[in-house]
Amino acid sequence: MLTAKQRELLVFIQRKLEETGISPSFEEMKEALDLKSKSGVHRLISALEERGFIRRLANRARALEVLKQPDDVSASRAPQLRASANDAVGGNIAAPRAVPSAAYDVIDVPLHGRIAAGVPIEALEGQQSLPVPAALLGSGEHYALEVSGDSMIEAGILDGDYALVKKTNTARDGEIVVALIRNEEATLKYLRHEGGKIRLDPANGAYDPQIYDDHDVQVQGKLAGLLRRYH
């Protein structure tokens, strides 16, 4: 059984797929269901996925496929779906229109202020979002930070770039991470483990590595991509 909100979201997703061939954005789903935050959308999507009504297409940030409709959705409420010989008995397996290539999909990624690529500065939480081509992202949850500073220029990361970050609390040596230092400041650096310490390496010969006790550093994500604006 689905809740009223789960059923409403399922019908909305299918209607958008039929009309445009593209899954609705989280912002569109939030507004359509009159929810207060996108976290509510995440919970509804996860519930529908667990119950086998939808699935997320692999390696595509904004691509959902409707697998079936609930039995109690009437023809007047549900979108009209084309049947095929492979439909399950009862006709409740949907045959949605093919979703376009991920290169054309766009997802609104939360934009959480600025992050230092030099001396650590405060990483601010914000309510803004940044539209990002889904092809730049892999699976998982992502957010964006505006880069401040020049300590990562030899890695091609410049002041004013937008770092696209995959949320994770683990990373391997040599990966570029968002490191939260003493629960106060965040910085973008190469991660290294060295003799029980954490070393955060810049990519600029003018800067020295930063060395901290292991308990003082928390990985909050690793770099997944960059966006750059030219004025």
Give your account of this protein's structure.
The chain has 231 residues and is of the alpha+beta class. It contains three helices and eleven strands. Strands 4-3-5-6-11-7-8-9-10 form a nine-stranded mixed β-sheet, with no helix packed on it. A two-stranded antiparallel ribbon has the order 1-2. The protein is elongated. The termini are far apart. Mean pLDDT is 78; it is low at 72-104.
Rg over alpha carbons: 21 Å
Q: Taking strands numbered 1, 2, ... along the chain, how are they ordered across the largest sheet?
A: 4-3-5-6-11-7-8-9-10
Structural class: alpha+beta
How does the major sheet shape up?
A: 9 strands, mixed
Note the gap between the termini.
52 Å
Low-confidence segments: 72-104
User: Which percent range describes the beta-strand content?
Assistant: 25-35%
Question: Averaging pLDDT over every residue, what do you get?
Answer: 78
Helix count from the secondary structure assignment: 3
Helical residues, percent: 10-25%
Order of helices and strands: HHHEEEEEEEEEEE
Number of DSSP-assigned strands: 11
Morphology call: elongated
